[in-house]
Specification:
Blueprint lengths: L1 H13 L9 H13 L5 H8 L4 H18 L20 E9 L2 E8 L5 E9 L2 E4 L22
Antiparallel strand pairs: 1-2, 2-3, 3-4
């Protein structure tokens, strides 16, 4: 009887649902879904932000800090995600990934010939994260203000 209970416990425990980012394809699909529902939603923005690589999150955090400093209005890094920047060019029909160690390249194919994209992912924090290549921010240049000639 005890053996049957242990076996059932092992079977039930083994059937738990895997997180969406257990695979590179799952991370990409989940990110796309959150971005589709974003539309100013802080909850969806946080969920999408959590699927991004550490490098991408750091870049968005720096952008949010610069925006906040320049505008005087605080903005959370996840709110720097602009859905218009991630508009799907086509409907994904097929996703496959090539994994090499902690890196993966997800190939997305659409319905029509020539509809394809490659999305890099990285394995971090126990799951796959999408690596969005954003341009590096230029250095901040502080120019002297009128009436303040600066150092001599």
């Amino acid at each position: 009887m005890l053996f049957a209970a242990l076996a059932l416990g092992t079977f039930v425990g083994g059937c738990s649902k895997k997180p969406p980012n257990a695979t590179p394809e799952g991370a990409v699909k989940e990110l796309i879904e959150h971005l589709r529902r974003l539309d100013g939603s802080a909850k969806e923005a946080k969920l999408a932000f959590g699927l991004l690589s550490e490098q991408t999150r750091k870049n968005l955090t720096e952008r949010a800090e610069r925006y906040s400093a320049a505008s005087g209005k605080h903005i959370e890094p996840e709110m720097m995600l602009a859905p218009a920047s991630f508009i799907e060019r086509f409907h994904a029909r097929f996703l496959e990934s090539e994994v090499r160690g902690g890196y993966a390249l997800v190939r997305v194919k659409g319905l029509l010939e020539g509809e394809s994209a490659q999305i890099p992912c990285v394995y971090e924090g126990g799951g796959w994260r999408v690596q969005i290549e954003l341009p590096a921010l230029p250095a901040v240049i502080v120019r002297p203000r009128e009436g303040n000639p600066g150092p001599r």
